[in-house]
Model the fold of this input.
Amino acid sequence: DAKTTQPTSMDCAEGRAANLPCNHSTISGNEYVYWYRQIHSQGPQYIIHGLKNNETNEMASLIITEDRKSSTLILPHATLRDTAVYYCIVRVVRNYGQNFVFGPGTRLSVLP
Amino acid sequence: GAGVSQTPSNKVTEKGKYVELRCDPISGHTALYWYRQSLGQGPEFLIYFQGTGAADDSGLPNDRFFAVRPEGSVSTLKIQRTERGDSAVYLCASSSGYGRTDTQYFGPGTRLTVL
Done:
C-alpha cells in the first residue's frame, strides 16, 4: 500500500489560503488521493479526492503534481472553523472493497 | 438525509466485560466499515462489510473482536473480555459500495473507556 507523508502541524492566518502538502511517492497508477479532516471529537469529514487532474469543490482545491508523487490541499480562505487534523490518504483498491489507511495527519491551526 | 449514526456516544465498562457498539449507516449504503482511533493517532481499519458479509476483517486485532451486519444495514461491533488497551474511539463509516471513487462517510464515533 502506498504511504503518505504530511507535516505534523501548520498554522494559517484567518482569511488567508491554507496550503497543506502531502507526499505519496510510491502511489500507483490506479490509486486515488483522498483528503479528509477531523475536527475535535467528531468523525472524519470527506473533503475532496482526485486521480491526476486538479479538482475543486465548495470546500477546497486539490492540486496533484504531474508525476503524482505529491499533492496539495488548498483551503482558499481559511476560517477558525477550519482548525482540524487533515488526513491525506491514498486509497487502496481491491476487488472486494477498499479501506482507508490513515496516517497521523497535519494539525492545522487557523489563527485570528 | 441522515448521516451515519453511532450509539452509544460514550461507553464506560470494566475490564473483562462484554460490550456492543452499534452503527446505523446512511440509508441505501451497502458498504460499512469499522475503524478504531487511539488518542493522537489516525483511524485504524478494523473490518469492512459489503452487504451482510464481512469482506475484509484483516484489521481485527484478535478473536475478542467480532462484528455482524445480519440484514445488510445496521452493524454491531462486539468486544469480549475487554482490556484497558481497547479504550479508544470506535468509528463507523458507510459508502454506496460501488465504483472506484466510492467515498466513505463517517459517524461521530463511540468513545469506549475500559477501567
